[in-house]
């Protein structure tokens, strides 16, 4: 949908050139093999198609992480540098080097990368007084973005002094863990229920991340899960498990009768959720 929107904008002359910074886990999957090279879009992402991005800068007062490593690196670089002297490629190479928690990627029209930051971010002199010149800040507290809710609760628990508060936080943390185990269990059980379609390599499907090519199959499974099983908007942890559907679809793509096998997998998912997830879960799975 994102790439269709960009294509529409290009076709309807909504921009001349467009630079896209995308911070998200598996953010490379939004552009890999999808973003055309001829629509004047240059995109960089926090990670490749199969890995997490990382949150950082935990703030004790606000009890949350204030940034993500990739975003912090490119934003702070923009603050430090003279936009008239640094190119997008200069910034990409620096951010790729400094982001050691994931693989920063680039997609689209690479010719745009040779242009200056000022063409897209405006004219500005470096904010040396704010960030100490060219010295690159070191991020020490990076955590997997998907595990941020767990880390926040753990930090709250570590900071708690009152025994009643500690007990409440311990129970909240356990409910978080229980919700995640609940979702993981049902993904595992569903995959085992379609062993006749995907073969015996169940552990591989459940633990490894294959590159997605059969997007139509994947979209069907994801949409079905969202509508019939667990609402993805209300249960964000489940997003961390959707790679399993990608793996299922890649296994279904091997051999013949791909459409028939896909339809069978979708039907099994509907049936599984009707019998096992009709009541959902008692709280959001974070």
UniProtKB/TrEMBL annotation:
<dbReference type="InterPro" id="IPR046427">
    <property type="entry name" value="Legumain_prodom_sf"/>
</dbReference>
<feature type="domain" description="Legumain prodomain">
    <location>
        <begin position="185"/>
        <end position="258"/>
    </location>
</feature>
<dbReference type="GO" id="GO:0006624">
    <property type="term" value="P:vacuolar protein processing"/>
</dbReference>
<dbReference type="InterPro" id="IPR048501">
    <property type="entry name" value="Legum_prodom"/>
</dbReference>
<protein>
    <recommendedName>
        <fullName>Legumain prodomain domain-containing protein</fullName>
    </recommendedName>
</protein>
<comment type="similarity">
    <text>Belongs to the peptidase C13 family.</text>
</comment>
<dbReference type="GO" id="GO:0004197">
    <property type="term" value="F:cysteine-type endopeptidase activity"/>
</dbReference>
<dbReference type="InterPro" id="IPR001096">
    <property type="entry name" value="Peptidase_C13"/>
</dbReference>
<dbReference type="GO" id="GO:0005773">
    <property type="term" value="C:vacuole"/>
</dbReference>
<dbReference type="Pfam" id="PF20985">
    <property type="entry name" value="Legum_prodom"/>
</dbReference>
<dbReference type="GO" id="GO:0051603">
    <property type="term" value="P:proteolysis involved in protein catabolic process"/>
</dbReference>
<dbReference type="Pfam" id="PF01650">
    <property type="entry name" value="Peptidase_C13"/>
</dbReference>
């Amino acid at each position: 949908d994102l790439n269709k929107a960009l294509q529409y904008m290009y076709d309807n002359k909504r921009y001349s050139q467009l630079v896209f910074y995308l911070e998200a886990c598996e953010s490379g999957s939004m552009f890999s093999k999808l973003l055309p090279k001829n629509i004047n879009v240059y995109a960089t992402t926090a990670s490749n198609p199969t890995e997490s991005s990382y949150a950082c800068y935990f703030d004790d007062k606000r009890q949350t992480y204030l940034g993500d490593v990739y975003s912090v690196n490119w934003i702070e670089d923009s603050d430090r540098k003279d936009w008239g002297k640094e190119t997008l490629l200069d910034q990409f190479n620096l951010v790729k080097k400094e982001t050691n928690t994931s693989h920063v990627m680039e997609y689209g029209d690479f010719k745009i990368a040779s242009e200056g930051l000022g063409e897209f971010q405006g004219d500005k002199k470096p904010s040396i007084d704010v960030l100490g010149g060219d010295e690159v800040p070191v991020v020490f507290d990076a955590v997997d973005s998907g595990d941020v809710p767990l880390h926040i609760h753990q930090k709250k628990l570590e900071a708690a002094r009152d025994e009643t508060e500690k007990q409440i936080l311990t129970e909240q943390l356990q409910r978080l863990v229980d919700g995640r185990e609940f979702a993981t269990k049902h993904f595992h059980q569903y995959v085992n229920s379609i062993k006749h379609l995907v073969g015996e390599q169940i552990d591989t499907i459940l633990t490894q991340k294959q590159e997605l090519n059969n997007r139509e199959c994947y979209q069907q499974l994801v949409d079905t899960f969202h509508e019939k099983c667990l609402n993805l908007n209300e249960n964000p942890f489940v997003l961390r498990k959707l790679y399993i559907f990608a793996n299922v679809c890649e296994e279904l793509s091997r051999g013949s009768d791909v459409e028939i096998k896909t339809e069978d997998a979708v039907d099994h998912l509907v049936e599984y959720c009707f019998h096992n997830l009709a009541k959902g879960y008692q709280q959001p799975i974070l």
